[in-house]
Amino acid sequence: MLPEKSLAWGRSKSCIRELAAYGSARKSEIGEDKVFDFSLGNPSIPAPPCVTEALRELLSADPVQLHGYTPAGGLPSLRRAVAEDLNRRWGTAFTPELIYVTCGAAAGLAACMHGLLLPGEEALTFAPFFPEYTVFAEGAGGVLKAVPPTESFQPDFAAFEALLTEKTKLVLLNTPNNPSGVVLSAESLARLGELLRAAEQRYGHTVYLISDEPYRELVYDGAAVPCVPDFYDNTIVCYSFSKSLSLPGERIGYLAVSPRMADREDVYASLAGAARACGYVNAPSLMQRVVEKCLGQTADISVYKANRDLLYNGLRERGFRCVYPDGAFYLFVKSPEPDAKAFSERAKKHELLLVPSDDFGLPGYVRVAYCVSGEMIRRSMPAFEALAGEYGLLP
Fold this sequence. Notes:
The chain is of the alpha/beta class. About 40% of the residues lie in helices and about 15% in strands.
């Protein structure tokens, strides 16, 4: 007898990975240049020079120390550097004792769910959302509920209040958002903080806010991601270097518990214990040392902005309705028919690989990842035009 949920998760296929696998097979059949694969959110620009320089410097050091275990919560020097970096950015008061180095954002989110949720308690998030949130919450014995967005893709707070109950233990937000690219405004965060403080008073227990921020540096046109802990004391920031430094395969990130949280020491201990129980201790030691030397730097994100403009303008000119993204590297496109999966299947006939939004908790859209070459985006335009023509979208 095996756990039913684990068996179901193992057997179920991610729509993103499944589409990417289809794309790989299709490229081998007809040629890579004939397939327009917008499925995966895999950074397409190289890591910044500081990463290569750090690796060269580190690889000349003592290999035993370099590849050995670190403390479970991360190198003290890295935890100190992360705290100082956050304080420099935001004017906060993080200390190394509130930083836990993780094996990427996924490990951090899983540790938050296992460290905060009791069986049957609820986590609220804002649609559209990354599909693995459901697995993380249910894997910890909790229940995930999604709040729909407004037309501007900010949270619908009337719907949020309706879902906010005594069972609510935590709220999970993602800004800039995957898959929409929308950045939550300071006004939205202020309103969220007000509602959560009122809920704590009403129900007599803490409601934690987890801010999932792997795309924090990927913003354009002068947009800025507000400091979420400024709006609510009981906040945990979850970060990954996968996107900012183009290091998705290296699995390195951190959790930062707000210094304003009243029970911060107990919460930190619970997160550390959850990470221990899940086996997420001792993040890759080499990469801990690399990111310590690269804090505050990013890959060349101007490439993503150019791609965004090229794709957004190209699709709008062909009659598609798109959510304007202030950050991340995704374009959320309204499906011309109610069934986004059917639209995605029709797009495949034009060799366009677009991810239907159903698994993101908001049907009726497709996600188009523009972390690809600008040349591929340009080559894809005739295919998008042909697809738009089938739906009578062309001006």
